[in-house]
Amino acid sequence: MKCNIFFFYACILPEYELLMHGMLDEGSAVLYNTIQNMIDKKTYYEGERLAALIIDCGGGTTDLSSCVFSVNNLGSSYQVAIDTAYENGETNFGGNNITYRILQYLKIVFAAYYTGRKRPVIANFIEEVEFDVFRMVDRGGREDVYRLLEEEYDLAEIIIPTRFKQYENRNREEYYKVKNNFYFLFQMADKLKHEFFKETGVLQCRFATGEEVENEGQALIKVDNWNLVIREKGNYQLHHDIPSVLFNVNEIELLMKVDIYWIINKFLNKLFVQGELEQYSIIKLSGQSC
């Protein structure tokens, strides 16, 4: 497949010289830190060829590559040889997909808040028992697990419109109000994701103004300008009041784990079933979303 890619680029860029050998693959670059640690701790064997599997998850794509490397001590320096091969990829999945999943949940929760309804919880849409979720993905795919969430997300569109693509033929003001809703919620979802997983110990989180003070175990995401357009009786009303809603790390983990299990299962299950996974001494995660 890699040869086909090089041939494709050679055809569309004939005026450029394409280097096919001695190039550094983005995913395999993370191996250098591992190799450096092996050299420092003297945990390698001279000339031994080791296999590593690299899962590179960025903002919009995820790639799987395998590497075979060896280390030789030349006295004054070390010689590191790495051979890389592309194994698999998903061009439609990355960290942005995880953020979008959180956006869906925020939209559902905020729609209930602005209409005075009881706050929904993730257990209403996804089975809480961990291994049952994994079995459901194995049997029917992630779409089946997220079905109730998607249905509730569709209903929330009536209260908090975000599908600005559908408003392209309407007036300019209406289009930009809906578009602002989507990108504002996407930004808030990304902030929530980072707040929970940038460090350990954060169990609860909510959005707040700059004047509020954090409580122990509860993080505040400071928002300078809260701007969300709500549809009320056919009219669009701009709301600046921040919903007093508390999110906990368990519900966000449950929301994310279906997508994460789906992509890992897609990449590793075949290798596991065929007995090829055992040949790898190292499995590394790389990319901004790892």
Describe this structure in words.
- By secondary structure, the chain is α/β, with parallel strands linked by helices.
- The chain is built from eight helices and nine strands.
- The chain has helices at 2-12, 31-41, 95-114, 130-140, 142-145, 147-156, 172-197, 249-273; strands at residues 50-57, 62-73, 78-90, 204-208, 218-222, 228-232, 235-239, 247-248, 282-286.
- The strands form three sheets. A four-stranded mixed sheet has the order 3-2-1-9. A three-stranded mixed sheet has the order 5-4-8.
- Strand 2 (62-73) and strand 3 (78-90) form a beta hairpin.
- The two termini are 25 Å apart.
- The model has no long low-confidence stretch (mean pLDDT 88).
Secondary structure tally: strands: 9
SSE order: HHEEEHHHHHEEEEEHE
Radius of gyration, rounded? 24 Å
Q: Which strands sit side by side, in order, in the main sheet?
A: 3-2-1-9
**How many strands, what sense, and barrel or not for the largest sheet?**
4 strands, mixed
Name the beta content range: 15-25%
Q: Count of DSSP helices?
A: 8
Mean pLDDT: 88
Structural class: alpha/beta
Write down the overall geometry: elongated
As residue ranges, the low-confidence spans are none
Percent in helix: 40-55%
**Span between N and C termini?**
25 Å
